[in-house]
Amino acid sequence: MRPNCKVRPIVICIGALAAGISVPALLGQDSGVVESQVRSEYQGKVLTLRHLYCGDRLHFNADGEVTGSRPCGSWTTNGQVRIKDLHLAGNLLRIEARRLLLAYDASSNQFRDVFDVNRGEPLARSLGSFGKKKQWKKLSAMADMELELESGSAPQITDIQAVMRRVFASPEEDLADLTPDHWRSFIWKMEGKPPKNPLTSQQAFTKVGGDVRAPRTISTPDPSYTEVARQAGYQGTSVLWLIVDAEGKVRDLKVAKALGLGLDDQAVESVRTWKFEPAKRGGTPVAVQINVEVSFRLY
After folding, report:
1. Long-range contacts made by residues 204-208, C-beta under 8 angstroms, separation at least 24?
2. What is the distance between the alpha carbons of residues 122 and 68, in angstroms, rounded to a whole number?
3. How far apart are CA 292 and CA 184, in angstroms?
4. Could you count the other beta carbons within 10 Å of the beta carbon of residue 131?
5. Model confidence, pTM
6. What is the separation of C-alpha 22 from the centre of its chain, rounded to a whole number of angstroms?
7. 10-residue mean pLDDT series, the chain (299 residues)
8. Which residues pair with 113 in a beta bridge?
């Protein structure tokens, strides 16, 4: 009977290899160890997505490419997530997360997740729904999301780390490089960093004053409110830096004073469509740089 005892486990190992299954995976040990390592490394951390996808469920293949969605949001509502929990199921990593809903706090010169704001802070006074449990519960539900990341079969921690790097930016990367162009000058200034490229238009422009008459608005469509800002009762004014060229068209929009919660991006999209009678110097149209205030109020 002793020879039979030795042969049987060898046959099982061969069968497992023929099926493409590792022995630790067959015994249900390896995936549990990897899942524990993944939790230890990522649980509770705030990560920045490389692209601004909408939706409460995102699926990424092993190359870090999303399926069934396209970039569509603002980085202040769709750019960062806090990892709540992670589960490994075969080659699929399921991540339970909550989006950070970022509002700009002028008193601290930084963006704050609205769920981290405390009563009595200046920012709390701009959040009309602050302290109202029903609205805050709805807002929290809007922020909850799930991500699915594909990896190789029987993935190891290095496989998980590789696909995470394809989906999320590393802490060493510059946040401004991951945001739309109209945000970059504001973020560099907020972080005390010098700009990486000129912030002015390639087209020459002047400033209003003296013999230069200011441009006059002809058409000014209003921006839309983001749903998260509406649910939070968030109000305020976004200021944009822009150029009105000699044809009365808007160029080179930049955020000069931020609000967050997606409202600045709505302001940019709206002002981009504005029409002007161009500025003039002695009757000749000229390009000028101006600031525009866009107010968001709930009535």
Report:
1. 204/287, 205/243, 205/245, 205/286, 205/287, 205/288, 205/289, 206/279, 206/281, 206/286, 206/287, 206/288, 206/289, 207/288, 207/289, 208/279, 208/288, 208/290
2. 40
3. 18
4. 10
5. 0.85
6. 38
7. 39 35 44 92 96 94 88 92 95 97 96 95 94 94 96 88 96 92 94 72 67 93 96 97 95 96 97 96 92 94
8. 102
